[in-house]
């Protein structure tokens, strides 16, 4: 896969050696257990082996979680149960170790980093695990037009890739991504539908949303797609028109990790 713009270039080899795959599966099937008895764990072992290029994959020692945070203009349409001020409050919670992701991460020995991808206010605090990568102060309401400019869409990819590159350089061996921001599930749903998924297939409440809120969410997504007409064959166009800063940065982060062969 290749994405190019002003030096932005990802070369990702999405094919794996059939010989390596066969060797990994053969080893798994010859362990002292019934074939396939470890279920999903065996799928993970196969995937890790293919990514690392090893028959016996190594357990990552340095694990890092990156939570990309941003606000979404579509929240103006009553698609969330909570106000946008909660996004900033959750950043403080993540940094103080009080969120669910912090608990899960502590159990597996992973460090949690928070990225300001585009929160609507200045995150004017200093913290060793806060990464300031703001593209803008929240996206625009995509029911009225594109969520961001094309330049901002490319900037999201570039900044996400830069963050992943730095993580790999300093020794991370397993990278995990997630996002937080009021209105984010509406944005994620709009992106998914723009890329071909059925709206009714994926629409859900996100936060504890009542029936009226869910109706507003569905209408906002439908209207955004009609107004912007994103091109499913052009991911940058989809990101620009109905995406979010956090989603764009996560995409760049994942692309860079894939290019470098890191899980």
Structure description:
It holds the Pfam family DBI_PRT. Its EC number is 2.4.2.21. Keywords: Cobalamin biosynthesis, Glycosyltransferase, Transferase. GO terms for molecular function: nicotinate-nucleotide-dimethylbenzimidazole phosphoribosyltransferase activity. The chain is α/β, with parallel strands linked by helices and 263 residues long. The chain has two domains: 59 residues, Orthogonal Bundle (5,6-Dimethylbenzimidazole Phosphoribosyltransferase, Chain: A, domain 1); 198 residues, Nicotinate-nucleotide-dimethylbenzimidazole phosphoribosyltransferase (CobT), large domain (Rossmann fold), CATH 3.40.50.10210. It has ten helices and six strands; from the N terminus they run E-E-H-H-E-H-H-E-E-H-E-H-H-H-H-H. Strands 5-4-3-6 form a four-stranded parallel beta sheet, with helices on both faces. A two-stranded antiparallel ribbon has the order 1-2. Helix 1 runs antiparallel to helix 2, helix 5 packs across helix 10 and helix 6 packs across helix 8. The longest helix has 20 residues. The radius of gyration is 20 Å and the shape is globular.
């Amino acid at each position: 896969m290749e994405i190019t713009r002003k030096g932005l270039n990802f070369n990702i080899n999405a094919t794996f050696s059939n010989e390596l795959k066969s060797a990994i599966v053969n080893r798994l099937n010859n362990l002292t257990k019934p074939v396939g008895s470890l279920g999903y764990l065996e799928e993970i072992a196969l995937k890790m082996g293919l990514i690392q290029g090893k028959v016996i994959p190594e357990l990552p020692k340095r694990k890092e979680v990156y939570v990309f945070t941003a606000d979404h203009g579509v929240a103006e349409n009553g698609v969330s149960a909570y106000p946008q001020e909660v996004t900033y409050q959750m950043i403080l919670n993540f940094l103080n170790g009080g969120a669910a992701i912090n608990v899960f991460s502590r159990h597996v020995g992973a460090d949690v980093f928070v990225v300001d991808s585009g929160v609507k206010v200045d995150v004017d605090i200093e913290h060793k695990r806060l990464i300031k990568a703001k593209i803008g102060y929240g996206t625009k309401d995509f029911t009225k037009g594109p969520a961001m400019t094309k330049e901002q869409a490319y900037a999201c990819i570039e900044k996400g890739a830069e963050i992943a590159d730095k993580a790999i350089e300093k020794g991370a061996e397993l990278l995990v991504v997630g996002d937080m921001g009021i209105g984010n599930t509406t944005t994620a749903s709009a992106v998914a539908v723009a890329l071909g998924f059925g709206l009714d297939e994926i629409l859900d409440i996100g936060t504890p949303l009542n029936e009226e809120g869910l109706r507003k969410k569905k209408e906002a997504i439908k209207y955004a797609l009609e107004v912007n007409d994103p091109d499913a064959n052009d991911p940058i166009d989809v990101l620009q028109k109905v995406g979010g800063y956090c989603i764009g940065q996560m995409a760049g982060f994942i692309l860079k990790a894939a290019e470098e062969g890191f899980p």
